[in-house]
Structure formats: C-alpha cells, structure tokens
UniProtKB/TrEMBL annotation:
This is Ferrous iron transport protein A. PANTHER family: FE(2+) TRANSPORT PROTEIN A. Residues 2-73 form the Ferrous iron transporter FeoA-like domain. It comes from Emergencia timonensis. InterPro entries: Fe-transptr_FeoA-like, FeoA, FeoA_core_dom, Transcriptional_repressor_C. The keyword Isomerase does not apply. Keywords: Iron.
Length: 73
C-alpha cells in the first residue's frame, strides 16, 4: 500500500482510496481529494509536516497524518 505520505516532491499520483472514518474522511474529501483525482506534490516541510499539494489547479497543505490515510498509485 502506497500512501500520499510516501510520495516524493515533484511526483504526480492518482488517489485510489481514502481510509478513515467520519469527520476526518469528510474533511479530506472536502479539500477535493477524492478517488481518481491527480495530485502533484509541490513541497514537503523538513519534518514532513505539512505536505503542500496541487489538486485540480488549487494549492493546498495537508497534515502528515491525513496523508497517511490517502492511498495512491
């Protein structure tokens, strides 16, 4: 299982599944991270938190804990 947390800077991946339940999963999906969407990793902070992404033309930052719940391919 490859998660968004393990993707290197400059790579583009596709979301295959979002793990998590309730409000956490809803928050991730509200950011536009849904199954099938392409995600470009722009920058990762020195300690890995936050991770800056480009999704659907928008720039956003997510926490490392949230990135671990997003399976990618």
């Amino acid at each position: 299982m490859n998660t968004l947390k393990n993707v290197k800077v400059g790579e583009t991946v596709s979301v295959t599944r979002i793990n998590g339940v309730g409000p956490t999963k809803r928050r991730i999906m509200d950011m536009g991270l849904t199954k099938g969407v392409d995600v470009y990793v722009r920058k990762v902070a020195p300690l890995g938190d936050p991770i800056e992404l480009t999704v659907r033309g928008y720039e956003l930052s997510i926490r490392k804990a949230d990135a671990e719940m997003i399976e990618v391919q």
